[in-house]
Amino acid sequence: MRVTKRFAMEIHDRIINLDNNATTPVDPQVNEAMAACQAQGLANPASQHSAGQRARRQLEQLRDQICVHLRGRRTSGATDRVIFTSGGTEANNLALCGLVGPPPGRVIVSAVEHPSIQEPADELQRCGFEVIRLGVDATGVVCCQQLTDLLTPETRLVSIMLGNNETGVLQPIRQIASLCEAKGVPLHTDAVQAVGKIDVNFQDLGVAALSLSGHKLHGPVGIGALLLRSTSKIDPLLRGGRQQQGVRPGTESVCLAVGLERALALWLDQAQSRRQQLSATRDQLESHLCRQIPQAVINGGGAPRLPHTSNISFPGVDRQQLFLALDQAGVACSTGSACSSGATDPSPVLRAMNVPEALVEGALRFSVSVQTTHPQIELAVDRIVSVFNHLRRDLQAKNRPHPGRHGGAKTL
Ligand SMILES: Cc1ncc(COP(=O)(O)O)c(C=O)c1O
């Protein structure tokens, strides 16, 4: 069937996007700023001619502004560095593999990190590092006492995320940073889901490096950054150019940097109202769902959380079935991290929290954005409740003994 533009738009209008941790729509003001940049037809910022130097000046100004937005240090001789990357995955890989130095040594990551930390950590293990996965408690918060015991002279690097992408649970990064600082161990934090959604102050956090990603905060896909303390030494992942002091060679995109800077600036301008709006819509979703489905459980609900993420278990139904039925009913959500979508494996994050198996099997992630409205949440709750009840009824009918000739008894 040929889908007409109008029909496609109608479907699109009916779909309620509760999967904003996967990606967020680009803010129209960000698009405008990038279009204006594109229209300038800038030269390559690595070119030596005057047009190239103009592009370089613009790029360096943007780098500086991004450092200011994230409250990096900007004193003479001690300016924190913004390394542009293609996104959060690359920033995390660069941090983990670039800050660790040569093997052997110990690397500590938490058990609830995103795959873009877990998989480079596996690679470091293959290269001769001892990799330790720090456990979390039942609410999803890492165990600081266990970390203290592991910060020995062999420890080279610690990486703990700021806010979890599946549950929204926040880690006590300031406390972790002071433990690491006392032992002279660099700490990296994956702040991809946190930047904008909560106040992120690089100096206050006390970390050596922080990852962010444009498309998670209404900026463009294709750009992220690693904010790096001025004193941190880092090895590149890529070779073949002198851009970004050789730390991340390759031609920089001034227009994508414009988009990232604008997106961050908009969050700063509207921080309070946006954050209030996010937590109000998330709370509305949770309270209305739990009222109508009393057996629903909010995973990580007992810990401080990001304001836009909710992980909810629906006992007695299969998450994959629920996800597919909701997709058909016009509610887009997720069974886990976008990077492992397609995978039907149960969430390693919920497993690390020791969530009972029946709840892991019925868990879905909902994530709202500043564009999510209260009427959309009302409608989404109606659809979720009706799909849930439908699946439960189906399941009960399947499990009911068949009233056959033998009174429902099974004949073998
Ligand atoms: C916590 C976290 N870190 C890293 C990433 C990867 O970011 P990107 O999609 O920009 O590569 C994601 C994406 O979902 C994420 O949620």
Topology at a glance:
Layout: H1 5-14, E1 16-17, H2 28-40, H3 50-69, E2 74-75, E3 78-79, E4 81-85, H4 88-99, E5 106-110, H5 115-126, E6 130-134, H6 144-150, E7 155-159, H7 173-182, E8 187-190, H8 202-205, E9 209-213, E10 224-228, H9 254-269, H10 271-292, E11 297-298, E12 309-313, H11 319-329, E13 331-332, H12 348-352, H13 357-361, E14 363-367, H14 374-399
Parallel strand pairs: 1-13, 5-6, 5-7, 7-8, 8-9
Antiparallel strand pairs: 2-3, 4-10, 9-10, 11-12, 12-14
Helix pairs in contact: 2-9, 3-9, 4-5, 10-14, 11-14
Bound molecules: pyridoxal-5'-phosphate.
Pyridoxal-5'-phosphate (PLP) binds next to helix 4.
Give a brief description:
Helices cover 42% and strands 13% of the residues.
Please explain how this structure is put together.
The protein has 412 residues and is of the alpha/beta class. It folds into two domains: 141 residues, Aspartate Aminotransferase, domain 1, CATH 3.90.1150.10; 242 residues, 3-Layer(aba) Sandwich (Aspartate Aminotransferase, domain 2), CATH 3.40.640.10. The strands form four sheets. It has a seven-stranded mixed β-sheet, sandwiched between helices. Strand 2 and strand 3 form a beta hairpin. Helix 2 packs antiparallel against helix 9. It starts with a helix and ends in a 13-residue tail after the last helix. The structure holds pyridoxal-5'-phosphate. Pyridoxal-5'-phosphate binds next to helix 4.
